[in-house]
Structure formats: C-alpha cells, structure tokens
Write a structure and sequence with these properties.
This protein is an alpha+beta fold and 543 residues long. It contains 16 helices and 21 strands. The strands form 7 sheets. Strands 9, 10, 11, 12, 13, 14 and 15 form a 7-stranded mixed beta sheet that branches. It has a 3-stranded antiparallel beta sheet with strand order 4-17-20.
C-alpha cells in the first residue's frame, strides 16, 4: 500500500528565515534594482547635468556630479545594485572617466531586456544577442576612431576640456587643461609611439582661500608641512635634499627597560650621552652638505636645534607616498640608515620655501630639474568647490593619459553612441532568429546617451534623436548634441573629443554586467530582510 503525499513530513533544506525569489520574479527584482541605480546618476550626465548632495551619518557633505563618487558614497544594500556599482568602479580604475555613461548604458540594456522578457524571449537568448552586439561594438568603435598624434597639444587640450566640462570647472577649464597637459607630458614616459603614465606621479593638492584661476603647477612637490623650528631659514636656494625614513631621535627600546642611576652626578652623564648621539646624527647629515632634511619619522627637539644652527631647513612626519614622489622629483635616494648616508644620496631643487596658503604653512619644493613627479595645487573658494575641481582634474588626467596610451580618440556629445547604434542596427539585420531582437535592443539602448544629454539640457529628446538619426544617415558620423544651443553639431569640429577607451570600456562593462544579471533566475537570501523587490513602493527609495 503506497503512501499519499500528505503522509510525508516536509523537508527543509535551508535555514529558517531564508528568503527565495525564483524565475521571472527574481529577474524583475534584479532589473528594477539596476534601473534604480542608473536613474540615481542619470541626471548628472553631460555639461548640463545636475549635482547631487550626499550627506553621511557624520553630517559631512559632498556636492558632486561625478558618477563613481556618488555610487561609492551612497549606502547600497541590494546585491544586484552593488554589481552595477562595480561597473562604475571598473570604469574608474581602467580609464578614470565615463563612469556615469557605463552605468546608464547598463541600466538601459536591462530596461530593454525586460521588454524582451515580456515577449517570452528566453534570458539566454537575450544574453547571446547582447554578447554578439558587444563584440561587434568593439570592432565598430575601433573602426570609427581617429589616430592621435602624441605631439598635438591642441587635441590633447580638447580632450582635457571635454573631461572637465560640466564639473564645476567651466569658467577655468582652459587654464586647468593647460596645467593638466603640461603635467602629463612632463611625468609621462614616451617611447616611440607608446606612452605610459603613473597617475600617482601627479600629486593633486587642494587648498581653499583663492580663486580657481590661481591654481598652479609646481615643478616639484608641495608638502602640507611647515619647518620644524622657527630659527630655520624661510627659503633655501639650490637645495641639497636628504630624504630620511628613520627617526632623528634616540630610539626607544621595544621591551620595557628600567635604568637605575645610583649617583646623582651620572644623571648629567646620561643626558650628555644622549646629546652626543643626536649631535652625531646631525653631523653625519651636515657632512654631506645637505641644507634640507625631509624626515618620514620624528625629529628630536635637540636635533631640530642643531639643524637650525647649521641653517638646515627640516620637515618631519612626511607621508611615505610623498617621500617616494620627492625621490622622483629631486633625484634623491631615500635613506634608511644614516651610517650608510653619503652625498650621492642627495637630491636637488632650485628653491625650497615655506609659504603661507590660507591659514596654514606649506613647504614648496620647486624648480626641480627634469622632475618625474609634480604637484597640481588647486585653489577654490570653498572646500566643496575645490573638491569638485579636483575630481574634474582627475578625470582630465585620466582621459589625456588614456588617449595617449591607447592612441585613438572619438567625438563625444552622443555622436559615438549614435553612430554605434546605427551600425549595430545594420548588423542586426544580417542575423536570423530571436538573437536579432536582442541585438536590435542593444542598439536602441545605446541611444540613451544622446537622449539623456538632451533631457538634462531641457531639450525635447524625441526631436533631438530624430535630427541626430537623420544626420548620421547622411554620413555625418560625428554629429552630436550641442546642449548649449540645442542644435545638432559636428562634435569633432566643436572640440568635444574623448579617448576611444572610454567608449569601449563602458560598452564592454555595461554588456557584461547586464548579461550576468539576466542569467540570474534564483535569489536566495539567508537571514536578510527588507531587500527591495519589483513592484514595491519603497523600491524607489532604497538602493
């Protein structure tokens, strides 16, 4: 006699409290989360993009329209939303700009995928079509790109200005772009047609209290430090610089030690020995004819006194990263053991001086000969402004170095995305089967960039897209949106130029994350509650 199903006890394979979403419900929830993240930054895209004010739990305020800064600082809980944030971080790490573009494209790819799911097209078919379109996009973008002449400073300046447009540096982008180009060309390494740059060699120092136009490029390093003793000189010409990463003070023993002195006369002897040890350290430095000492550790008060008497300018507690930059800028070697210190380890600078910036003193190491590390000193009226200027300059440095490293550039203003969309639609017509619909959807999703640029500028997106399509059909491949005039313009002639790598990386990253999200059909949440799901009212407010 067989048992009925009702006779069996239920079998639990997951712990109590586990939540599970499967099938279409899981896909809808994931797509909703991704679209919400994209919507969070979409209004910041382009020269007319709006800013976001981020206030953390401590009350600290950030005002920015930089995509990766926004996504990195808001607290995102949803696991799928975090995957979209990873797209922005990857874009930032690889190129340094284009984070908002990558996230917005990813969000629109999933929006179009949702429409295909409603047509009962299987997610793996959509994923295959997206993969075909993404691979084809790389070839199309490479084919439309123009070769960059590494010696063409005018084009490089346009790349820098394009990166800074709409990011708080509008009125001074000409001045700032000139500083960026000079800095990149100084510290970058050009070998034939190849170029490489370590962005950390360009130190960006921010100070409030002056206008952005007073920002300057220092041929050396600016330290947020003042001289350690008031008797030291205010400035040193033809500086011979010693970089020391060991303390100029008596070393304290690592274990607890007790010194017993039975004779009062020996107390003075004890102090005399310490003084003699410190004096020997200073004499060792003085023997090399160094007239500036930069110490990564502490400098004893007595050592400060002896150094001041010898006319040596000294600073202490300098960060390791700044020590490494100083070594590149001055040619000095960082010394760990004073016993092995010689004149060959010294670096050179034309001028070292203490300068009052705002209400603080800073040390300028200037006029270095052929420096391989520089400082961009950025000024601004408020902390919020100078922080945003720094983000704009960082994007410009990333764009210029990427353009020079990879050697190819394209036009911005939505021109590249529109031309790519047009070519992908042609490619879709050569396919058969349901993948064709996915490739067509991929092409439609790319139009989100010019559409968003138009919306953020207060223009009618339908009219703009219609005119753009007509221009590209007439073989005007660089036709883009001029958000200031509301007209369709030749973005290349307008000087709106971006590195090819921004576009290839954004399309590739967006497609990869969209495909990954589409292939998820089961979400198992262990011990977690309050994950936003599709259709819930609070899904629009909880990222």
């Amino acid at each position: 006699m067989s048992k009925k199903d009702s006779d069996y006890q239920p079998v639990y394979i997951m712990p109590e409290g586990t939540q599970r979403n499967t099938g279409k419900n899981a896909q809808r929830m994931n797509i909703m989360a991704a679209k919400l993240v994209a919507e969070a930054v979409r209004t910041t895209l382009g020269p007319k993009g709006m800013d976001k004010m981020l206030v953390n739990s401590l009350g600290e305020v950030i005002v920015t329209n930089d995509g990766v800064t926004i996504l990195r600082d808001i607290e995102i809980e949803h696991p799928t939303a975090k995957m979209i944030v990873e797209v922005a971080k990857t874009q930032e790490d690889e190129v340094g700009d284009g984070t908002t573009t990558a996230v917005v494209i990813a969000g629109d790819l999933l929006r179009h995928a949702e429409e295909l799911l409603d047509m009962n097209i299987h997610p793996t078919v959509i994923a295959k079509g997206y993969r075909l379109a993404a691979d084809k996009s790389q070839k199309i973008l490479s084919g439309m790109a123009a070769k960059l002449d590494l010696d063409d400073k005018d084009v490089l300046r346009k790349v820098a200005e394009t990166a800074m447009t709409g990011k708080g540096a509008e009125d001074n982008k000409g001045h700032l772009s000139g500083l960026v180009i000079e800095a990149v060309l100084k510290v970058g390494r050009k070998t034939g047609n190849s170029f490489s740059l370590d962005k950390t060699d360009i130190k960006v120092e921010k100070k409030t209290g002056a206008g952005v136009a007073e920002s300057e490029l220092i041929q050396g390093i600016v330290l947020d430090k003042e001289k350690v003793h008031s008797s030291m000189p205010e400035q040193v010409k033809n500086a011979r610089i010693a970089l020391i990463d060991s303390p100029l003070e008596i070393r304290s023993l690592e274990t607890d030690t007790k010194i017993s002195i039975t004779d009062p006369d020996k107390i003075q002897s004890f102090f005399d020995v310490e003084e003699a040890m410190i004096k020997r350290m200073v004499e060792k430095i003085s023997a090399t004819k160094a007239n500036m000492v930069i110490c990564q550790k502490g400098i004893d008060d007595l050592a400060q006194h002896f150094l001041a008497k010898k006319g040596v300018y000294a600073v202490r507690r300098v960060k390791k990263s700044d020590m490494e930059k100083l070594a590149k800028a001055t040619g000095a070697k960082i010394v760990s053991d004073l016993n092995d210190f010689s004149a060959d380890d010294l670096g050179k600078a034309g001028l070292v001086e203490q300068v009052r910036v705002g209400d603080e003193f800073m040390t300028y190491v200037r006029e270095c000969e052929n420096p391989k590390a520089l400082t961009l000193l950025l000024r601004g009226a408020t902390h919020h402004l100078v922080d945003e200027i720094a983000r704009a300059v960082d994007d410009a440095i990333g764009d210029v170095s990427s353009a020079m490293k990879h050697g190819y550039i394209v036009a911005g203003a939505g021109a590249s995305e529109m031309e790519l969309s047009r070519e992908i639609k042609k490619y879709a017509s050569t396919l058969s089967g349901r993948e064709q619909l996915a490739v067509q959807a991929f092409a439609d999703a790319l139009e989100v960039i010019p559409r968003t640029l138009a919306e953020n500028a207060g223009l009618d997106p339908i009219d703009v897209l219609t005119e753009l399509k007509a221009a590209h059909d007439n073989k005007k491949k660089w036709a883009g949106v001029n958000v200031f005039t509301g007209k369709i313009t030749d973005a290349w002639e307008e000087g709106i130029i971006e590195p090819l790598k921004i576009k290839t990386q954004a399309v590739s990253s967006a497609a990869d994350v969209a495909i990954m999200i589409l292939r998820i059909d089961d979400i198992i949440l262990s011990g977690k509650e309050d994950i936003p799901s599709a259709g819930k009212d609070d899904a629009t407010t909880k990222y």
